[in-house]
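Title: Prediction job returns without error message
Component: structure pipeline
Severity: low
Priority: P3
Assignee: unassigned

Description:
Job completed but the reporter wants confirmation the result is attached to the right record. Sequence as submitted:
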Amino acid sequence: MSDQPQSGTPNINCPNCGTVQLSGTQFCTNCGALLAPVSPPQPEPSTEGAAPPPVPFESTPGAGYSLGEPPKPPYPVSLEFNGPEQLGRLSAIFRLILAIPLFIFLYAVNGVVSGLVIAHWLSLLVRGGRPVGWIGSAIVALLRFHYRAFAYLLLLSDKYPAFEGEWFLQLEMQRPERLRRRQIFFWKTLAVIPHFIVLSVLWFGVSVCVVIGWISIVFSGRFPLGLRWFVIGFLRWSARVIAYWMSMRDEFPPYSLASEAGAGSRAATGFSALGGGVLAALITVFAIVGATALTGTDTEHVSYARLTDGQPSPVITINNIEIQLTGAQDDYSFPGEILSPAQGMRLVALEAEIYNGTIAEFDVSGTDFEVRDSDGDKSRPVFTTVRGLGTPVEVRAGALADVLVVFEVGAFDDPAELRYSPERGLKDAKFVFD
């Protein structure tokens, strides 16, 4: 064993007797105790050519959100409710009766809001997107009362809603100094259509929650907190969508019930607008198809010669009203000649049966019929009877009425068509004579 210490290795003391020992010695030279080995000092690692230490990720503005980035700020329209949990049983039982004056006042309030919103839109167009302050303040105040009234109607509180001052529900809007004019009405209407569809579905859940809450209040005096949170979230979601549609804000509202939810992204706005546009197009197509089905004219061709022989025509059904021609009399003469045609004219009588298949009664009168002759001239009946009575005559639901209509046509002309237009119908029945 070498007597010289190893270069760079420190001497050690014996843990038993404290004698200083040379480096590399295994046993104490004084007492023979075993010495613990000493590790040589480790050189500092070289950093030459090594990769730099990782830098914590930081987001860049507008690049989304990372683990280290603070969350989005809440949407600038807030609705909070802090009412008591204990509620009055009698107030819940008679809520609909107590709310009758509230319904009347709400109707007036909503009418005023509609007028103010139109004025707000016009001011944005005229003033380059700068809103008029008092109009916005009035809209917010009226909407605040609107949602307070709904909170009362939905059993969240048994205290009558206050128009001003403190109440359990608070609705606040941060109103900007400038808004985008190009988004007014059309763009925002398309964008919120999916919101309104979701809210319509959620409204069913709110209705169920209110029914369960009513039962719970009657028996325990409390509205279950979980159900109450859902109803409040629905009102909050609705308030955000309404504020956006009214152009009180330009940020797209989130699809969320939570109070801390931030504004929707550009992608959400674009997809919602696209979906709203598709739905609006489909609704328009269905409306046109439905209007076409409910309006227009149903036509049947009839042999006039066979009709004069007593052979009835096919039945035309329009809006649950059935009409059938049962006969015709050409060159018709009234008994006792109480009515005679003008010179160069003759009378033509058409007999018909009308069945009322609707759920309500309607009147049959001479103005419902019109005849066109072979020269293209149109005329109304000169005489009409229903069940032998003068018109108009009421035909009740499920009843059948015999009708006689007499027209005056040219002596050398023939009836070309008969048109029947019921007073409550959107469609006409037309019989074309061959």
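Comment from assignee: result matches the submitted record. The longest strand covers residues 345-356.
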